[in-house]
Amino acid sequence: MILKPQAIIFDLDGVITDTAHLHFLAWRQVANEVGIAIDETFNDSLKGISRGESLQRILQYGGKAGEFTPEVCAQLAERKNRLYVHSLRQLTVNSVLPGIRELLMTLREERIPVGLASVSLNAPTILQSLDLSACFDFCADAALITHSKPDPEIFLAACAGLGVEPQQCIGIEDAQAGIDAINACGMLSVGIGTGLNGASLQFPSTEFLTWPCLSALWQHDK
Ligand code: B16
Ligand code: MG
Fold first, then answer.
1. 11 flagged as catalytic
2. What is the CA(23)–ligand 1 centre distance, in A?
3. Which residues of the chain have pLDDT under 50?
4. What pLDDT sits at residue 197?
5. pTM higher than 0.90, yes or no?
6. How far apart are CA 159 and CA 161, in angstroms?
7. Average pLDDT, whole number, for the chain?
8. Mutate-to-test residue for ligand 1 from 119, 125, 136, 149, highest number of ligand atoms within 8 A of CB
9. Does residue 13 have an active-site annotation?
10. Residue 1, pLDDT score
11. Ligand 1 nearest-atom number relative to CA 80
């Protein structure tokens, strides 16, 4: 039996910090401008979904799929991003979700490599605002990814960058698309929140996420 996982790979939005609400406010404004009303429940379905695909889902939801040229879609996505990036100014070192900074420090002490698998192109900026960049050994580059979660591509890229095998790693996610992506590459999956299906282990919030729990999961399953 291998006693420790080769790496722990984290999602960003909803696991490291809560940027979902900021994504929602920016998308709601852009959606309003094209006559579509979205709410937080619909926004949940955009978690882990890339910017371009999120826009397509919003247009579909509002019955406007195919109404805008690719150029206009690019402008709408760009406008959303400007609003979102502006709102990221409110992030500080205190915006890290409960227990996460402590877990990252423990993983360092245990010499377990740490990776990031976020499809957000703003991930490096967000980690900097949280003063967490140094806690990650490798962050998969969302710009090089062609498929959003639930495709496993971003998690496989994180494993490749760390030089580890997915089957020897644990992935942590708050979105169903992310849990499906983790499971698709053969990693053990840990879900944060409620209403997730198929996670190897699930916690209601990040404060319960500790190294002893992850270690116990590993030793139980491997
Ligand atoms: P950006 P994650 C995802 O981050 C968000 O959950 C999703 O709502 C967002 O559309 C996506 O990043 C792209 O973000 O527009 O900043 O490139 O959950 O994979 O950390
Ligand atoms: Mg997430």
1. yes
2. 8
3. none
4. 95
5. yes
6. 5
7. 95
8. 119
9. yes
10. 56
11. 15
